[in-house]
């Protein structure tokens, strides 16, 4: 692993009444120790998981619109409001890596076309591939050893089958300890990666949880086991 600890410098915070410090999980955040090469952030939308991931990317020197250190382009509202207030502890520090922001991946793909760098992504424009294919092209051609990868909802473009293929990418890159991943996700498939750490941002704080205790696992499993009952309860007012 490379990134060992994330610390909120509480003494520098101007007010806990304004964003992003008004987010409960951020307001009560002090320090997070990273103990696995694969770390997941989970929680409801607005819980702060993407906010913290984006701040890590900014502090690491990556483009917060998506990309690495050398990807220079601009997307409105891509700046991090939290980066100036966190400290990252590295051992050793790495400068290689990538920040994937699913919601601005289109702009990243356009940037790659503009600079003529499609050869680094399989030789074909990311725009000339399906959304899922372009994500896998990124993972397979741009991700290498001795780097840290920060991924915000990578499942957004991946079918269940492609999510399984992505798990193989995680395995191939992380098992020797030369790559590190921090991933914000809603996917129960990705969360099932063995020996990973899952940090929940729900209930107003950041806590490590077991896979089977996540809402993502419990709700998905319960729905699959009791589909007809769930649908009946959801639609019973229409009967």
Please give a structural write-up:
This protein has helices spanning 24-27, 49-59, 105-114, 131-142, 160-174, 188-191, 215-225, 227-235, and strands at 3-8, 31-33, 38-42, 86-90, 97-101, 147-152, 179-184, 197-200, 207-209. It is α/β, with parallel strands linked by helices. The strands form 2 sheets. Strands 5-6-7-3-8-9 form a 6-stranded mixed sheet, sandwiched between helices. The protein has a 3-stranded antiparallel sheet with strand order 2-1-4, covered by helices on one side.
Biggest sheet character: 6 strands, mixed
For the record, what CATH class applies? Alpha Beta
Head-to-tail CA distance between termini: 55 Å
Spatial order of strands in the largest sheet: 5-6-7-3-8-9
Radius of gyration: 18 Å
| Backbone shape | globular
Structural class: alpha/beta
CATH-scheme architecture: 3-Layer(aba) Sandwich
Task: Quote the CATH topology.
Answer: Rossmann fold
Order of helices and strands: EHEEHEEHHEHEHEEHH
- What count of structural domains? 1
- Beta percentage is 15-25%
- Poorly predicted regions are none
- How many beta-strand runs? 9
Overall pLDDT score = 90
The percent of residues in helical segments reads 25-40%
Please count the helical segments: 8
How would you concisely characterize the structure shown here?
The protein is α/β, with parallel strands linked by helices. It has eight helices and nine strands. It has one domain: Rossmann fold, CATH 3.40.50.
């Amino acid at each position: 692993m490379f990134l060992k600890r994330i610390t909120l410098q509480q003494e520098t915070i101007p007010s806990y009444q304004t964003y992003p410090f008004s987010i409960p999980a951020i307001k009560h955040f002090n320090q997070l120790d990273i103990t696995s090469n694969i770390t997941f952030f989970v929680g409801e939308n607005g819980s702060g998981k993407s906010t913290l991931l984006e701040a890590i990317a900014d502090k690491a020197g990556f483009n917060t619109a998506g990309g690495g250190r050398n990807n220079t382009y601009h997307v409105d509202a891509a700046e991090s409001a939290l980066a100036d207030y966190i400290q990252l502890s590295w051992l050793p520090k790495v400068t290689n890596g990538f920040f994937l922001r699913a919601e601005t991946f289109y702009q990243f793909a356009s940037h790659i076309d503009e600079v003529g760098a499609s050869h680094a992504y399989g030789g074909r424009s990311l725009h000339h591939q399906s959304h899922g294919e372009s994500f896998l092209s990124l993972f397979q051609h741009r991700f290498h050893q001795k780097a840290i990868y920060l991924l915000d909802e990578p499942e957004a473009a991946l079918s269940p089958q492609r999510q399984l293929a992505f798990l193989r990418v995680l395995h191939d890159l992380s098992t020797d300890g030369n790559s590190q991943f921090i991933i914000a996700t809603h996917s129960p498939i990705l969360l099932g990666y063995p020996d990973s750490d899952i940090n929940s941002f729900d209930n107003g704080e950041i806590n490590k949880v077991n896979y089977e205790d996540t809402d993502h696992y419990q709700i998905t499993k319960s729905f699959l086991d009791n589909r007809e009952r769930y649908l009946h309860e959801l639609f019973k007012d229409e009967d």
